[in-house]
Amino acid sequence: xxxxxxxxxxxxxxxxxxxxxxxxxxxxxxxxxxxxxxxxxxxxxxxxxxxxxxxxxxxxxxxxxxxxxxxxxxxxxxxxxxxxxxxxxxxxxxxxxxxxxxxxxxxxxxxxxxxxxxxxxxxxxxxxxxxxxxxxxxxxxxxxxxxxxxxxxxxxxxxxxxxxxxxxxxxxxxxxxxxxxxxxxxxxxxxxxxxxxxxxxxxxxxxxxxxxxxxxxxxxxxxxxxxxxxxxxxxxxxxxxxxxxxxxxxxxxxxxxxxxxxxxxxxxxxxxxxxxxxxxxxxxxxxxxxxxxxxxxxxxxxxxxxxxxxxxxxxxxxxxxxxxxxxxxxxxxxxxxxxxxxxxxxxxxxxxxxxxxxxxxxxxxxxxxxxxxxxxxxxxxxxxxxxxxxxxxxxxxxxxxxxxxxxxxxxxxxxxxxxxxxxxxxxxxxxxxxxxxxxxxxxxxxxxxxxxxxxxxxxxxxxxxxxxxxxxxxxxxxxxxxxxxxxxxxxxxxxxxxxxxxxxxxxxxxxxxxxxxxxxxxxxxxxxxxxxxxxxxxxxxxxxxxxxxxxxxxx
Length: 555
Fold this sequence. Notes:
Low-confidence stretches: none
């Protein structure tokens, strides 16, 4: 049925374990080459770690699946060195509209603030996302991939994990210091280890139809409640790459998933929506149900779970792949420090701490969206319909409309890794916050703040004129790079150039000063995953050292 995409075939290469007849050992093994497993492997390899990636398939995922990728996810992909390709191919959008029957009752803009590099969202079929991530892995010499390799056993020891792998040429074993599990919602490895996952299954079914057509609809998210073409149910429309439009029809729990996938059932639904005169071709059809659940802990000894293997949410709000890529963003730098002996293994407990908090936040928002979209009691339905009716005329009710609160990064304000503020700051760049982007000028031209950050600890020190930086501060800043855990010093200024050896970023539009509430002397400590670790109103190298120790569990 696929008309717009040619699926690649990844070659199975006979591994050395089968050639030499002995088990190999690898510092870290990632299982699963979906978006989250690929992102985790890329992030680790970007930071200089050798990685083995195993996957049981030999191509990318079938169908559009995950579609919406949020601004923060694009910024994470930028840090991994592959964001531009996604944005060029994807459909950028910021505006979403919600309709009751034929009338618009609510709209939102994901990017109400100017001077950010990335859009609020892009829509891009998951097969493109995976293909581009695979292409990025090909650029990283320390990353080895093995396709058609199914993990059939996992045995965890005190200092290593033994992994059994089945291939077309037979089984073999390998060992690894750390095993990262990204094998999906049904996670065979989670089952092998007897680990629980708890939550709620939602009793509803939805039909996905990918339709190829030329249409002049704007690149926006459109969501209908009770439309005339699909009464008493909901419908979602998104534009994707290659003139592919994603349509989701709510069907109800009693719908027969086998029957509803048949073209003779799908095509009339689409014609009722688009009109008989609209020409289209059906590209991919699927029926899905969903659940909101998570594991109690994401790290179990030397086995670490990411993405759907650790937590699942409903698709309303695009929180699945986005939250999984944020798992990779959170885990990779911590695991790298542990593997390099620069942090104790207890640092990985903070991965569970921070990402369980994020998962609970996503599950809460996803559950609320699902309950609003698919009410399961007369009381809930009456409330929902009343909100929608009121929203058409009264602004206060529009805030209650919930057609999917879309993915945003998690503020880790209560993380044990943060150094709390001891001085007054305005704004939202609190310790634990994902760092806001802003335009800058450098010696190489116009750029963006977040493109200068990540993959290491960094200290951002603000002055009005970088050329007037005093020698004592200059020496203390430069010395940060020689600490046991290196911190890159960066001078942010309105004008001037810092002394040689210090990077200078010019706040060309004043956005950094505004968003970070900067005053002369203000200093921020940034984590490798572009979150705020600490901030002060004056530079103090000893406070930075203490904050780094706290952020790496070396305190």
